[in-house]
Amino acid sequence: MSSAELVVTTAEEQAEAVETAGIVRGNLRFFLNELRLVFFRRRNQLLLVVVALFPLLIGIGLKVSAPGNGRGGGGGGPGSSAAFFNQLAGNGVFLTFIALTLLLILVLPLAVSVISGDSVAGEAGYGTLRYLLAVPAGRTRLLIVKYLVIVAFGTAATFIVSVVGLLAGVALFPVGPVTLLSGTTVSLGAGLVRVLLVTLYLCVAMAAVGAIGLAISTFTEHAIGAIAAVMVLIVASEVVDQIPQFASIAPYLPTHWWNMFDSLLRTPVDTPTLEHGLLSFVVYAALFWLIAWARFTSGDVTS
Amino acid sequence: MTETTNAALPSQLTPPGTAELAIKSDALTKRFRGGQLAVDHIDLAVPTGSVYGFLGPNGSGKTTTIRMLLGLAYPTSGSAELLGVPMPARAVNVLSRVGSLVEGPAFYPYLSGWDNLARYDAADRTASARTAKRRIGTALERVGLTAAAKKKYRHYSLGMKQRLAIASGLLRPRDLIILDEPTNGLDPQGTREVRALVRQIAADGITVFVSSHLLAEVEQVCSHVGVMRTGQLVFQGSLPELRRTGAARITVRTPDVAAAAEVFDKLGLAEPAPAPGEEAITAELGDAAPEHVCAELVHAGIAVRGLAVESPSLEDLFVGLTGEGFDVER
Q1: Could you tell me if residue A11 is inside a domain?
Q2: HEC states along B64-120?
Q3: Residue A15 placed within a domain
Q4: Whether complex ipTM tops 0.90
Q5: Contacts of B67 in chain A (CB under 8 A)
Q6: In chain B, what residues touch A143 (CB-CB under 8 Å)?
Q7: Per-residue pLDDT tens over the stretch B232-241
Q8: Does residue A260 lie in a domain region?
Q9: Nearest to A137 among B19, B109, B123 (CB)
Q10: Which domain holds residue A135?
Q11: Min Cα–Cα distance to chain A from B165, Å
């Protein structure tokens, strides 16, 4: 706010100008307010509780149904997922990987879809969007804050799965040095670092989902429609990814690199695959954030 | 009302750059994607310090105009300025000095009144967090919602919602308040409350731009009016100017209607017509003095039982400008 532009300047206004917060503090305040709005909303809290319940239930279910070793059946997908199941009886840390693998199919992307699909469309539906812009929040600034909070929520949800999975695993199964997928065994501490890295990798994956949701959210004022659209997109991508005939386009699908987190569970770590994955996530995030920006800054707000 | 407003066209008013006009638009036009011309080359001139009633039936383009003024919608052509700052190009520079209520209140139903105001205040990059509490408290007090501050918005009555929306417009010292249909859906008491608030705001020297489809609701508080009809600004000026556009009529009660008609004719009064329901005759007064007409009638030996001069009410003028009944012109 440049005070030179104030044509009519009252004493009160000057006082206000003096106490005007710095730009950084103003932006931080808006971000924290948005964070509160999302994380304190009952619906979203419930969503996180549901997300937290899954690893717990999966852990209890596997404990109850696994009398001994070598039962890889119960829902374990192909490849590494089955390997996790086999390892679980020997080491509770693997519950985290099982939970992440299973929740990646639907629950985690759903949680991120709800927040991101609702982000702009929800505000438009309530009519609060026009007031935010009249405040003025600034269109680009609003979109940045919205996206940062979506990323924060995706990160929180992913970490909840990891942490609850880990705690449940430790409580229900024996814990010790971690035998990686490549057969080498690392110390428990090193194993936990791998858990952290896997979680961070998936946080980036969820950030990409968040950008897709944000973009779709700018095209409608029906939050439910936006949320459903994101989910349809994710499930479609997962289905196409399973069809061998589409193998040539598979690496370009938004979901293709999610399960590649198992690259972190090998020695040496399969860095090229991880880099591909991260690149895919970042490109998706940037592309869809820009789509959201192009749409949001050029369109009329009619809600 | 410090401004003289005998010039209704913006071109005749102040040069650009000065903010003697709180709102100024130049051939502002909005055509919807369907091709419908919602706002058709309107030249608004809202003097600083005025209370400007923006009138017109529903669907006449008022809200679309307000959306363009606030930078929510982009004009198809033409330009607009708020407080001398071009919109929407530099919206961020000026909107923190403008409070607004657009198309009804809109808040988060799951937040309290207080938290809702805190939300909008936090979104304002120039608002200080340090003074937020005081400012929110003052704004709520001003609209009489202090007691309901902690109540969830979804439990508010319609009137309370409307008042909360006005409170959000008062969170910071403003130079201009834009209120779109602030009395919509309110009961008479709510309407009176809003009217009193508008008066208070104006008394603080803030320019108020208030839209309504009912002249009666703003007539008592406005100094200026603009009248919209199917996207066009069909009148703009001060209330006295609007009154002057109406022709006064003289009505004479007499048993000798025919003879009185002859006198009217002799005096050159236009449009003589028998007044309905009684022995009386009416005509446009024009430039004639009523006392002169009376003297002439008496001189002609006509029994004058009563004589009245009536100017059309503002409502009549308003209806004349906007058309009556359903808005079927588009």
Answers
A1: no
A2: HHHHHHCCCCCCCEEEEEECCEEECCCHHHHHHHEEEECCCCCCCCCCEHHHHHHHH
A3: no
A4: no
A5: 130, 300-302
A6: none
A7: 999 999 988 8
A8: yes
A9: B123
A10: 41-298
A11: 10
